[in-house]
């Protein structure tokens, strides 16, 4: 083999290699098939692969982002937040390995939250709490409601609340919330607010008490979401401990005080004892 | 039209203002005190002995009590504040009517201040303020008239010592943190000091001060440094301010140790006269070095729904007052020791709306109006869960109120977001203001959180 042939061969190889590297890497076909089979939104997957390609990620790195999403979908667990987190990481130009690690963590928390919520929804009281009649209960819990509660629980555990605490809170809600016209949205909101209210120095039982009283009093989802900010203002104005303020707020709600008035009292630091 | 009538008119005007209007805040207080006052005198000049105490100052060794009698005071005060996005205008006023068995009833103190504040950045504001005060006290004159001093026949008898100050100057306020505010003040002023016909004098002065306000579990509020120079005469008020501040800090520890959830005890020391005080401050203490023990109890739940502090405040005061400088009149220095109980009733009130603490969004009939405080004219973009984190994001429009805004019509839910600016193709993320609800993004940063409730 002459030198000219060897040089030409090497040049052609380099040209082919460069051409292959310049093209965006599609995800591994089997992963896409699995995603489709699991019912994942093709548009969302396509968005992640497109952004990953634009960010210069190779096929292996892109697969690492998609794998936890596909696994969640295969277990009938919500994937929307994980996909958004992948897009967020790419927008913030985080390293692919770091994004994959965060997605793995998020997926693990989602799986655990799914197990807790599924076990909780086995209880008839829990199903009645989210507004399902006996007939509807036989058909199963609507997917959107289940996903919403799982996402809230995932966020709460990601921010540091323990699974045992969350299980205890869900059980208390099923046992102690007697209003049975909920839609699931307020349960999901209560979990989120519980997490927002649970400052390090606050006893979780007190926060849970407030949430349960609020749900029993029929406090709207909108008002429920305003409690964390109102309590922050109350602490600034009155310099009382958060635990005391929450106890006073729960007491006022249980005595029939309208939620808007309790929120106003909190904001102005004039909550009656 | 006398001052009392004018004061009543101003108070009525305050009360009639629409407090519920978003940009208006009003507050009005009525403070009353009753107690016993003991008057003492001691030598001035270069005494043979005596001690110098922190807070109280020099005590001559020939200090002796001259008289003791009950007194009653009534002090209305109030403020009106108008706030737009970056501008705040405020008028504040206070007066104190004092009556005692010694027969010196009358308006002892009146104070008015008008200030305008412009928010340069969310944590930095620049203002201009102008103020006037009138102080009348019969304490020193009473000593000359009824006390141990002999009247010298020069027309002092029956006169009240009066001072009128007017000053104006710039004002810079920096919110160094969520709980810490530093203010720099300066200005020029004019003082008319009238003891009697012979001793009337005009003084023009320049002053500067640094005030601090820190509130957390402990709170601290005082003057870090005051400087004042007059063309005629005036007390030195410079480096001592810093020393007093050091003395002030341990008193906060005392306050902390004695605190309970509902009862607050203040032990505070004021050095000489802070030039600018809150409208509800005690006029008498302005004119003296004082030590004060204040016990404050808030009683809440009297049915007030206004955006305000508790309506009732009770206090116990122990004041040590060194009266006005009498260097031109006598070589004796009058002092007063007062023990009083007081009650303050908040007639009507509202809290200050800090421009920097403005909510980032307000709900509309459909969706929300997102508003971000503008640091400069650089274009800003909003990116987050709602647009799948697509860069550069949704452009924000700079409004005339100093905020970058955008109407967002989003379904109910929670959305993580960030604000960014584009500079030469780079993407610097704009830090979140401290009061915004933020969540750890998992990547070592923070996301803001938009919450769109169900309609």
**Which regions of chain A contain 5 or more consecutive residues with pLDDT less than 50?**
14-25
Q: Main β-sheet of chain B: number of strands, strand sense, barrel status? A: 13 strands, antiparallel
Shape of chain A: elongated
The arrangement of helices and strands of chain B along the chain is: HEEEEEEEHEEEEHEHEEEEEEEEEEEEE
List the total number of helices of chain B.
4
What does this structure look like?
The complex is a heterodimer of chains A (273) and B (455). Chain A has 2 domains: 29-121; 135-273, no CATH class. In chain A, 75% of the residues lie in helices and 0% in strands. Chain A has 15 helices and no strands. Chain A is elongated. By secondary structure, chain B is mainly β. Chain B folds into 2 domains: 3-355; 358-452, Immunoglobulins (Immunoglobulin-like, Sandwich). Chain B has helices at 3-16, 139-146, 240-258, 283-286; strands at 24-43, 51-53, 57-59, 64-83, 87-100, 106-121, 124-137, 161-175, 180-194, 201-215, 219-230, 263-270, 290-299, 312-322, 332-348, 361-363, 368-373, 380-384, 394-395, 397-398, 403-408, 413-421, 429-430, 438-440, 446-452. The longest helix of chain B is centred in the middle third of the chain and has 19 residues, at 240-258. Chain A binds chain B through residues 47, 84-85, 87-94, 98-99, 102, 105-106, 158-159, 185, 192, 196, 220-222, 225, 228-229, 236-241, 244, 261, 264-265, 267-273, and chain B through 215, 217, 261, 298, 300-301, 304-310, 351, 383, 385, 388-391, 412, 414, 416, 418, 427, 429, 437, 439-443, 445, 447, 451, 453-454.
């Amino acid at each position: 083999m002459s030198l000219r042939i060897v040089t030409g061969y090497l040049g052609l190889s380099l040209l082919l290699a460069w051409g292959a590297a310049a093209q965006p890497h599609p995800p591994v076909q089997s992963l896409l098939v699995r995603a489709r089979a699991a019912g994942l939104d093709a548009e969302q997957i396509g968005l992640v692969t497109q952004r990953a390609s634009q960010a210069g990620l190779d096929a292996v790195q892109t697969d690492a982002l998609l794998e936890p999403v596909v696994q969640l979908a295969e277990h009938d667990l919500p994937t929307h937040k994980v996909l958004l987190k992948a897009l967020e990481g790419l927008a913030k130009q985080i390293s692919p390995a770091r994004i994959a690690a965060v997605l793995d963590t998020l997926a693990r928390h989602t799986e655990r939250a799914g197990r807790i919520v599924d076990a909780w929804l086995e209880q008839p009281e829990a199903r009645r709490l989210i507004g399902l009649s006996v007939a509807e209960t036989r058909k199963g819990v609507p997917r959107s409601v289940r996903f919403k509660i799982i996402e809230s629980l995932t966020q709460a555990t990601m921010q540091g609340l323990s699974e045992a605490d969350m299980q205890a809170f869900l059980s208390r809600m099923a046992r102690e919330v007697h209003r049975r016209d909920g839609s699931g949205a307020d349960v999901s909101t209560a979990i989120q607010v519980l997490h927002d209210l649970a400052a390090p120095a606050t006893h979780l039982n007190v926060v849970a008490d407030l949430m349960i009283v609020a749900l029993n009093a029929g406090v709207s989802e909108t008002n429920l979401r305003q409690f964390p900010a109102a309590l922050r203002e109350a602490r600034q104005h009155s310099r009382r401990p958060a635990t005391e303020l929450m106890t006073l707020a729960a007491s006022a709600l249980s005595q029939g005080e309208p939620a808007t008035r309790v929120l106003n009292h909190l904001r102005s630091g004039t909550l009656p004892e | 039209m006398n001052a009392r009538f004018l004061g009543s008119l101003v108070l009525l005007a305050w009360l009639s203002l629409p407090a519920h209007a978003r940009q208006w805040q009003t507050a009005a207080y009525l403070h009353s005190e009753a107690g016993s006052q003991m008057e003492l005198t001691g030598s001035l000049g270069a005494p043979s002995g005596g001690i110098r105490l922190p807070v109280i100052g020099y005590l001559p060794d020939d200090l002796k009590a001259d008289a003791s009698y009950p007194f009653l005071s009534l002090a209305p005060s109030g403020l009106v504040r108008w706030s737009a996005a970056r501008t705040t205008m405020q008028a504040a006023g206070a007066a104190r009517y004092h009556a005692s068995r010694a027969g010196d009833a009358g308006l002892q103190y009146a104070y008015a201040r008008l200030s305008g504040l412009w928010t340069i950045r969310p944590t930095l504001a620049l203002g201009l303020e102008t103020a006037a005060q009138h102080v009348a006290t019969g304490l020193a004159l009473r000593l000359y008239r009824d006390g141990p001093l002999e009247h010298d026949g020069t027309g002092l008898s029956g006169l009240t010592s009066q001072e009128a100050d007017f000053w104006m100057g710039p004002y810079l306020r920096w919110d160094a943190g969520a709980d810490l505010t530093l203010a720099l003040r300066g200005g020029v002023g004019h003082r008319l000091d009238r003891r009697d016909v012979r001793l009337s004098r005009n003084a023009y002065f320049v002053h500067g001060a640094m005030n601090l306000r820190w509130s957390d579990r402990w709170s601290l509020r005082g003057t870090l440094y005051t400087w004042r120079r007059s063309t005629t005469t005036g007390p030195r008020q410079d480096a001592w301010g810093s020393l007093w501040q050091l003395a002030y800090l341990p008193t906060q520890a005392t306050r902390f140790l004695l605190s309970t959830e509902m009862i607050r005890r203040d032990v505070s020391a004021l050095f000489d006269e802070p030039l600018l005080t809150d409208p509800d401050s005690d006029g008498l203490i302005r004119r003296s070095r004082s030590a004060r023990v204040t016990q404050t109890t808030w009683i809440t739940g009297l049915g007030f729904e206004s955006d305000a502090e508790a309506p009732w405040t009770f206090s116990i005061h122990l004041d040590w007052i060194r009266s006005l400088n009498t260097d031109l009149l006598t070589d004796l220095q009058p002092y007063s020791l007062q023990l009083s109980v007081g009650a303050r009733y908040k007639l009507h009130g509202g809290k200050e709306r800090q421009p920097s603490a403005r909510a980032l969004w307000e709900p509309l009939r459909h969706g929300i109006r997102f508003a971000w405080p503008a640091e400069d004219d650089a274009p800003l973009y909003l990116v987050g869960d709602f647009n799948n984190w697509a860069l550069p994001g949704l452009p924000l429009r700079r409004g005339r109120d100093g905020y970058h805004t955008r109407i967002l019509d989003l379904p109910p839910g929670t959305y993580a977001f960030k604000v960014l600016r584009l500079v030469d193709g780079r993407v610097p993320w704009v830090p979140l203001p401290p009061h915004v609800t933020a969540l750890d993004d998992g990547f070592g940063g923070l996301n803001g959180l938009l919450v769109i409730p169900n309609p």
